[in-house]
Automatic annotation (TrEMBL), chain A:
PROSITE patterns: ABC_TM1
Subcellular location: Cell membrane
Protein name as catalogued: Sugar ABC transporter permease
Family label: Belongs to the binding-protein-dependent transport system permease family.
Provenance organism: Plantactinospora endophytica
InterPro entries for this protein: MetI-like, MetI-like_sf
Alphabetized UniProt keyword annotations: Cell membrane, Membrane, Transmembrane, Transmembrane helix, Transport
UniProt cross-references to Gene3D superfamilies, sorted A to Z: MetI-like
Keyword Lipid biosynthesis: no
UniProtKB/TrEMBL annotation, chain B:
Name of the protein this chain belongs to: Sugar ABC transporter permease
Keywords noted in UniProt: Cell membrane, Membrane, Transmembrane, Transmembrane helix, Transport
SUPFAM superfamilies registered for this protein in UniProt: MetI-like
CDD domains xrefs: TM_PBP2 (cd06261)
Record localization: Cell membrane
The encoding gene: lacF
The family this protein is said to belong to: Belongs to the binding-protein-dependent transport system permease family.
Pfam families reported for this sequence: BPD_transp_1
Organism from which the protein derives: Plantactinospora endophytica
InterPro entries documented for this protein: ABC_transporter_permease, MetI-like, MetI-like_sf
Topology of the protein relative to the lipid bilayer: Multi-pass membrane protein
Residue spans crossing the bilayer: 23-46, 91-113, 125-145, 227-246, 283-303
Length: 301, 311
């Protein structure tokens, strides 16, 4: 990939040209067939993509016997909240929920601060080592997570941080993806704007906080959402460093329950899955415009 | 950080301009860089060093007192039947999974970009949904959907008179099932990237093609595909990097079974880590690293040649 210097603002979408030219009757009928076929395919696809979640949500309100019935039912015949009551009453799901929210929030805030600061340095400040730093960040994208896994574990153990919130948060505070995203976005902020602020006597910190950050709101929103979701769902590292129940995150707890003796209580697992999935689905649907923009920004030059 | 005090001005500082620029620049870059070095770059280097030692979990408190064993850990890989098995499974996962996901993602993007549907936003949200949901929750649901008797998938097959197999219980079907599930989970991400790529193609190219009498297929083959080359490259590289590391799917769906038929390289590394063989696990992770870099270069070779032409 060459250094991305083009504007990262979402390109104004050209209204998709309708395939038909001047509406001739034959053409129009063919297009109507195409529209119908396309929608049938897209709707079937949608069922395949969303169906499992729909079934999960509906079944979490069924009593255990109905979940296992053959043939499977969609709508609960007898609606019950027993699964959720057990989840939040007998099991410690409120704690897991809190841990997940805390870890994801801390990591997100850290990335917003550190990545935007380094993005500013990489785009608007000239200092020795700048190119090397960017090269380092960019090349790390290809490092498989398993490469750092063992040394990280040794490091955390030697710092005496095993089974602490710090162990869950520290390794993810400064992500390469975030630095990359912020750098790319900040290229679209005109240098003249910053130059004129400097001429007016503003220091770099003030320029960064007062001028650059407000302009970066779309990128910050995208980075914030992406980071939060990734860490809300994060699973393998917490599984290894969180060793007692009071530090479990939601995915860890769900994974451990799903292989333990609770496997027979499938309704409980479904309700747990809903608790894991529902917040991200809500966040995603409400903020999906930022989301798509963020993905497109990281994905395109 | 006194040098970056807001009122320091451009000329008023006592430091020379060059030194001052360095201090200000690193003032902004240092917090990120320090965390990045300690928790990513440092461990990458440490892992390489560990791979030449016989570090085990018992040595954790004293990692510098281990023996250097040279390339032993790397040579051991060839005799490790489980590693070979895992490498084959991982290769299959990439070879089948990457094209499948890319075709599905591109097809979805083309469907939504055709201008024939007003429900684009709704479809986009729906198709993207699996990407944002936790793999653990997905596994809970899919394990149930793929149940031999009461599972939804086999229930649907029964409607059309087919007898569905035990998808995750058979050695020949477990890996393909996971591949399809991975494609299902990741195609939404690719769709969004492809959509952005499709919208960046200038409309006049299509107009010119239509004037020349190109059919829809010809427009796709000679306008869309060549223009999408940079996007295909990006999506291909990202998917390959991701799939080479596949691990969470078998961990939560099959525990690597049945009979190691879904054991992946990352999963094997994780197991060796669990057994306390840290040096060996590090060596394996570096083999994976090299494979990722190698395949990424291959993608660039494959698609870059035409990139200049398409711009």
């Amino acid at each position: 990939m060459t250094a991305p210097t083009t504007s990262t603002r979402p390109t104004v979408a050209v209204p998709p040209a309708t395939a038909a030219g001047p509406a001739r009757p034959v053409r129009r009928r063919r297009d109507r067939v195409a529209v119908i076929v396309l929608h049938v395919v897209l709707v079937v696809g949608l069922l395949v993509m969303v169906g499992p979640f729909l079934w999960m949500a509906l079944s979490s309100f069924k009593p255990e016997a109905e979940i296992w019935r053959v043939p499977a039912t969609w709508w609960p015949e007898r609606f019950t909240l027993a699964n959720y009551r057990e989840l939040f009453g007998r099991l410690d799901f409120p704690t897991y929920f809190f841990n997940s929210a805390l870890v994801a929030t801390l990591v997100t805030v850290g990335n917003l601060v550190f990545c935007s600061a380094v993005g500013y340095a990489l785009t608007k400040l000239r200092f020795p080592g700048r190119r090397a730093l960017f090269g380092l960040v960019l090349s790390s994208v290809m490092v498989p997570s398993m490469v750092t896994f063992v040394p990280l574990f040794v490091l955390i153990a030697n710092l005496g941080l095993t089974n602490t919130y710090a162990a869950l948060v520290l390794p993810f505070l400064a992500g390469a993806l975030g630095a990359f995203l912020m750098r790319q976005f900040m290229f679209s902020i005109p240098d003249e704007l910053i130059e004129s602020a400097r001429v007016d006597g503003a220091g770099e910190l003030r320029i960064f906080v007062r001028i650059v950050l407000p302009l970066c709101r779309p990128a910050l929103a995208a980075l914030g959402i992406l980071t939060f979701l990734a860490n809300w769902n994060s699973f393998i590292w917490p599984l290894v460093v969180a060793t007692t129940e009071d530090k479990y995150t939601l995915p860890v707890a769900l994974a451990l329950y799903s292989v333990g003796q609770n496997q027979t209580k499938f309704g409980l697992l479904l309700a747990g899955s809903v608790v894991v999935v529902l917040p991200v689905v809500v966040v995603f649907i409400v903020l999906q415009r930022h989301f798509v923009r963020g993905i497109a920004t990281t994905g395109l030059k | 950080m006194t040098a970056v005090a807001p009122d320091a001005g451009t000329r008023g500082g006592r430091l020379g301009p060059r030194l001052r620029r360095a201090v200000v620049g690193w003032g902004f870059a240092l917090p990120f860089t320090a965390l990045f070095v300690v928790f990513l770059a440092g461990p990458v280097l440490a892992s390489l060093l560990m791979s030449f030692t016989d570090l085990r979990s018992a040595d954790v408190r004293n990692p510098f007192a281990v023996n250097v064993v040279g390339l032993d850990n790397y040579l051991r890989l060839f005799d490790d039947e489980l590693f070979v098995r895992a490498a084959v499974n991982t290769a299959l996962f990439v070879l089948l999974g990457v094209p499948l996901t890319m075709v599905a993602g591109l097809a979805a993007a083309l469907g939504l970009n055709s201008g024939l549907t007003r429900l684009r936003g709704m479809f986009r949200v729906g198709y993207y949904l699996p990407v944002v949901t936790s793999i653990v929750a997905v596994a809970v649901v899919w394990r149930f959907l793929l149940q031999p008797d009461s599972g939804l998938v086999n229930s649907v097959l029964r409607l059309v008179g087919l007898d569905g197999p035990n998808w995750l219980g058979r050695t020949d079907l477990a890996l393909p099932s996971l591949i399809v599930m991975a494609a299902w989970r990741n195609l939404g991400y690719q769709m969004v990237i492809f959509l952005a790529g499709l919208q960046a193609i200038p409309q006049h190219l299509y107009e010119a093609a239509r004037i020349d009498g190109a059919t829809r297929w010809q427009q796709f083959r000679y306008v869309t595909l060549p223009s999408l080359r940079p996007t295909l490259l990006f999506v291909g590289v990202i998917a390959t990097i991701g799939y080479l590391q596949f691990f969470e799917e078998p961990l939560v769906m099959t525990r690597g079974g049945p009979l190691n038929s879904t054991l992946s390289v990352s999963y094997h590394i994780y197991n060796q880590f669990g057994f306390g063989n840290y040096g060996y696990a590090s060596a394996m992770s570096y083999v994976l690293f090299v494979a990722i870099v190698g395949l990424s270069i291959l993608w660039f070779r494959l698609l870059r040649s035409g990139e200049e032409v398409s711009r």
